[in-house]
Amino acid sequence: MNTQLDFSRFFPCVLQAVATDDFQVYVYFNDGSVRLLDAKPLLQPGTVFEPLRDIAVFKDTLTVLNDTVAWDLSGKRDGVDCLDLDPETLFALPAVSEELWDTAQ
């Protein structure tokens, strides 16, 4: 992570998002940091995120659109027709070490 950034001029952009088998997402940012999103609290019945309760849908539709984590449920790669999360909210998550390769199967 670049600790020399001027955060008054920095806007966090997601470069890559990788889902795990337990509804978490490793989020890779343009400053070199990695954040870990635990999406389980979002996946409540009756919410827009309910379709993501199926782990196959959660993993298969995860992408990066509009510089943030998104789920492209329609498959159209349309930044308007997706479920996405605010990149600043994601950037506020604690940084983690890149343990992805230790947990990948």
Descriptive tags:
105 residues, alpha+beta, 6 strands
Could you say which overall geometry the principal axes of the C-alpha atoms support? Answer: globular
Order of helices and strands: EEEHEEEHH
CATH class: Alpha Beta
Class derived from helix and strand content: alpha+beta
Summarize the structure.
Helix content is 14%, strand content 26%.
Plain-language structure description:
By secondary structure, the protein is of the alpha+beta class. It has a single domain (14-98), classed as NE0471 N-terminal domain-like (2-Layer Sandwich), CATH 3.30.2020. It contains three helices and six strands. The strands form two sheets. Strands 1-2-3 form a three-stranded antiparallel beta sheet. Strand 1 (14-19) and strand 2 form a beta hairpin. The longest helix is centred in the middle third of the chain and has 6 residues, at 55-60. It starts with 13 loop residues before the first strand and ends with a helix. The mean pLDDT is 90.
Secondary-structure blueprint:
Layout: E1 14-19, E2 24-29, E3 34-38, H1 55-60, E4 62-65, E5 68-71, E6 83-84, H2 87-91, H3 100-103
Antiparallel strand pairs: 1-2, 2-3, 4-5, 5-6
